[in-house]
Amino acid sequence: MNLTNRLIWFLQVTIKVSVILNLHLSVFHDWERVTELKEFCELTLDTIKPSAVLASGDLTDAKKKDGIGSTQYEGEWLAYHNVLTSGKVSEKTKWLDIRGNHDSFDVNNLESPKNFYRKYSEQGQFHPRSYKYKVTNHAGMSLNMIAVDACLDPGPKRPFNFIGNLDESEILELQSLANNTKDPIVWFGHYPTSCIFTSGSENPMSVVYLCGHLHTLGGLVPQMYTMQNEGFAELELADWKDGRALVESRLNVKLTIYCTVKFLCRFRLIAFDQGSFSFIDIRHGQWPIILVTNPKIPWLSIRNMETEEDRMANFKYIR
Questions:
Q1: pLDDT at residue 22, as a whole number
Q2: Residue 2 confidence (pLDDT)
Q3: β-pair partners for 165
Q4: Above 70 in pLDDT, residue 160?
Q5: DSSP assigned state of 298
Q6: Residue ranges in the chain assigned as alpha helix (H)
Q7: Looking at the predicted structure, is the pLDDT value of residue 97 above 70?
Q8: Which burial class, exposed, middle or buried, applies to 250 when counting CB atoms under 10 A from its CB (0-12, 13-18, 19+)?
Q9: At what angle do helices 254-262 and 32-39 cross, to 10 degrees?
Q10: pTM higher than 0.85 for the full model?
C-alpha cells in the first residue's frame, strides 16, 4: 500500500504587509515583517514543499501613520509583490491570495486605481473576486480550493469595513464554483462566517473554511476553531501582525522584543491523508515541524471522505 497516494498538504498564512493565513505589510510600522515573509517564501516553502499556499487576506495594512485613518499605499503592495517575485513562489507552489478588509480600504470599485490587488497580487489579475483552484497529487487525488471574497463594494475606510457581505451575484458565483464536484472542497477567505452578511447554502463536499479576520481577539482566544452545524470545520488563524502587537504590549525591554515577536508570527500546515483532515498552527521559525495525521484529531471529523482502503490504513498505521 502506497500511503502517499491519498496525501495532499498545503499552507495557510495571514499576512498584512505594513511590510502570512494576514500579512499586514505597512510602510509605517515594523518593516521586519517583510524580512520574515521573505524567509517564509524561501526557507519554509523550500522545506515543506506545499501543494498550495492560501493567503487569506489583509495582504497589506493600509493604515495611516496615526493608526486611525486608512487608504491604500502602493509601496506596501510593491513590497508584497517583490517578496513573492524574489522568492520565486510561482516556481515552488501555487500561491492563492484573496483580499481582506484592509486590502479594500478606500477602494471605490474593482476598477479603481487604488485597487492594487488587481495589479500586484498573484491572483488578482486573473480573478478580481472569488475563484477556484484544483490541487491534484501524483496519484490523481484532488481537492477544490475556493477563495471567498466578501469585501464590501465600494470599500469604505476604517472603521466601517469590519463586516463582509456576499450579494446575490457573488453567492451564485460561489455556488457555480462548488457545484458538480466529487472532490472535497476547502473554502478560504478573510472574514469568518459570523462576520459575513449572507444567507449561504450547504454543500455536502465542504470540509473546512479557513479564515483570518478576528485572529485571536487580542490574545483572548488563542485557538478559534469550531465545527459548524452543517458539518464543516471553521478555523481562524492568528496573523503576522497580531502576535507582534501582543508582545509589544506586554514587554518593555526593547532588546528582547524583536526575537520574541519574530517567533510569534504564525502559519498553518494542513493535510488530507487517507480521508482524514489534520492541521497544526506553527510559529514562524519553529523547527522541526511535525504534523500527526493519524490518529485523527478527535473533534475534527470529515463526512464520507474515507474509503475502505483508507479505513484499513488508519487502523494499522500511525502517521
A1: 53
A2: 76
A3: 197
A4: yes
A5: T
A6: 32-39, 45-48, 74-86, 89-92, 117-120, 168-178, 242-250, 254-262, 308-316
A7: yes
A8: exposed
A9: 30
A10: yes
The pLDDT tens digits of the residues spanning 280-289 come to 999 888 899 9
- The span from the first CA to the last CA of the chain, in angstroms, equals 14
| SS3 label, residue 160 | coil
Query: Is pLDDT of 263 > 60?
Result: no
CB within 8 Å of 89: residues ≥ 6 apart: 41, 45, 53, 95, 122
Q: Minimum mean pLDDT among 1-5, 10-14, 47-51, 179-183: which range?
A: 1-5
pLDDT band of residue 175 (cuts 50, 70, 90) is: very high
**Cβ partners under 8 Å of residue 12, min gap 6:** 20, 21, 53, 54, 55, 56, 188, 210, 212, 237, 267, 268, 270
8 Å CB contact between 164 and 174: no
Rounded to an integer, what distance in angstroms lies between the CA atom of residue 279 and that of residue 266? 13
CB of 14 within 8 A of CB of 244? no
For residue 152, the SS3 value is coil
Neighbours of 291 (CB within 10 A): 15
State residue 187's pLDDT score: 96
**Residue 254: is it exposed, middle or buried by C-beta count within 10 angstroms (0-12/13-18/19+)?**
exposed
- What's the pLDDT tens digit per position in 49-83? 999 999 998 999 898 888 788 999 999 999 999 99
Cell numbers of 111, please?
A: 476598477
> By C-alpha distance, which of 140, 126, 114, 7 is closest to 60?
114
Asked if 161 and 155 count as a contact pair (C-beta separation under 8 A), the reply is: yes
Cα–Cα distance, 269 to 197 (Å, whole number)? 29
Quick one: DSSP state of residue 43?
Answer: I
Beta pairing, strands 276-283 & 266-273: antiparallel
